[in-house]
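Suppose a colleague, Dr. K., hands you the sequence of a protein chain of 327 amino acids and asks what its three-dimensional shape might be. Before reaching for any lab equipment, you can write down a predicted structure in token form. Begin with the sequence itself:
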Amino acid sequence: MLDVVIVGAGPTGLACGIELKKLGCNALLIDKGCVVNSLYQYPTNLVFFTTPELLEIGDIPMTAMNEKPVRNEALKYYRRVTAHYDLDVRQYQHVQRITGEDGAFVTHAVDSLGCPQRYESRKVILAMGYYDVPNRLNVPGEGLPKVIHYYKEAHPYYDQDVLVVGARNSAALGALELWWTGARVTMVHRGPGIHKNVKYWIKPNIENRIKNGEIPAYFNSTVKEIRPDSVTLTTPKGEVIVKNDFVFAMTGYRPDTEFLGAHGIEFDPHTARPNTNPETLESDRKGMYLAGVLVAGMHTSEIFIENGRFHGKTIAEAIASAISSKT
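The predicted structure, expressed as tokens, is then:
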């Protein structure tokens, strides 16, 4: 039997695995994608709004060509850390359910070939993040193939009519890159303007493009309907129909509350913030711990890699103490 199964192999999950290994606990990590899958899904040209040392885990230094690391440097770093600590990571396995109880959990997963996998462990850590569950627009046509919730890169949308929904960092950067690449970009946002927290090197640029009429923007507006060749917007001046080939719904993401609720995790119905012991991060379900952004519920801006990585040490020490007290 394993000491711990960790669901999620992002930076926080890796940090948990490292700290457990340091304390002599054997842990297995499972991810439905690749190692640090959420970072892999980031835009190709992403620059982190932080310095390399704030992304470090396991006392392994991170280097970058410039002051702020880029996506590919982060991917390389976390691969190197995973290999250095020889972490047991099962990639491309989807966890369907976790049964049992504290001291005798069973994690049921399905691998990429459709074969069932079963892992027994004393404890479980949920470190899945929130990037897999986008906030929906809930409008007719959202299910069309042209609607995209993850912006990767601009090249495929050259000479296309593209609508960007949202006005935070990902939406502003995506709109700029799409426009630079030759897409005809329109923005729509339910708020009065570009969000005040957009990064300082992006905000004036996107605002200037809007001011100059290069990127039409509809504020205090929403998407009413998406059709194969157009989008209908509800604006302060009435309905507007915009010619359209692709929609980027950059409306943010949320924790998978259905999965958490099905596994006995109780949380605030308004904020989706789960109940956890602040000293150990153990949930209401004894023996099951939460790590990373899951702890913040809907307030996803409270926890990033920079602070979520410290959950590993907190949880590992609590688990090691609990296991040793029973042996």
